[in-house]
Design a protein that fits this description.
It is a single chain. By secondary structure, the protein is α/β, with parallel strands linked by helices. 41% of the residues lie in helices and 18% in strands. The chain has a single domain, classed as 2-Layer Sandwich (Transcription Regulator spoIIAA), CATH 3.30.750. The protein starts with a strand and ends in a 5-residue tail after the last helix.
């Protein structure tokens, strides 16, 4: 499951990953996201994978890197060493596309700084989204 919130005033899409999806499921989610009323290809993406219990394989990362994210910045927040390393692989593989603009960070403040967004405004929204959708919390 991926929870999301679109902030049109910030030109930002926030994603919080709770469960590992197949590459096909990720593509279906992307199509669903595009149908959201406030969605725009121009918006940056803040992708939080800190709650993802199972990480993607190198093959899956390669498949995801082939997707087009060239119209915006994508900041990934990954706290575990493994998630950070796999996300860096995605960043590096995507760098082959000269229009790609993907970066990996250990925390939301650094990610939002790179996205040129105000962390004081965005972090409470990210935290609330992560708490409200977390199936592990009652």
């Amino acid at each position: 499951m991926i929870a999301f919130r679109i902030l049109p005033e910030e030109k930002l899409i926030i994603l919080v990953n709770f469960t590992k999806l197949t590459v096909d499921e990720l593509l279906a989610f992307r199509q669903e996201l595009r149908q959201a009323p406030d969605y725009s290809e121009e918006f940056d993406i803040l992708n939080d994978v800190r709650k993802l219990p199972i990480q993607y394989t190198a093959d899956e990362i390669q498949q995801m890197a082939q997707q087009d994210y060239s119209t915006r910045k994508v900041a990934i927040i990954a706290s575990s060493d493994f998630a950070f390393g796999m996300s860096r692989m995605w960043e590096m593989l995507s760098a082959d596309d000269t229009d790609s603009n993907i970066r990996v960070f250990r925390n939301g403040i650094a990610a939002l700084d790179w996205l040129e967004k105000d962390a004081a405004d965005i972090l409470p929204i990210l935290d609330a989204l992560a708490r409200s959708q977390d199936p592990r919390q009652s």
